[in-house]
Amino acid sequence: MVDKKTKVENKKEAKADAKVEKTITMQTKSGAACADSKCVIHGKLPARGRVFEGIVISDKMQKTVTVEWPGFAYIAKYERYEKKRSRIHARNPACISARTGDMVRIVETRPIAKTVKFVVVEKLPNIK
Ligand SMILES: [Zn+2]
What we know:
five-stranded mixed barrel, binds zinc ion, CATH 2.40.50.1000
């Protein structure tokens, strides 16, 4: 009888330990854990919709970066393509803290501010 009880307790403890380990690895994997509620990994921010990859061209705002990537637009009159650039403001959580020149992946989320509807989810290896 006593043995059975201790077995059950041990199982419970093992489960609890596994849970703790999981949260720790998640924190260490992303660098430092952040207390930012508007973070996809540590907060409750929903990440859904469009996904873009671009270069951070400004990090002067608080917890927000400007991300830019190139594209083309067709001009029917000249039957040629025009070079264009897309610029988007994205939330920059403390655990990612992307800086100017970093290649990042951004995902659409709910509106966070007047011009911020995207969040940085990861830094990508820079291709130079
Ligand atoms: Zn975070």
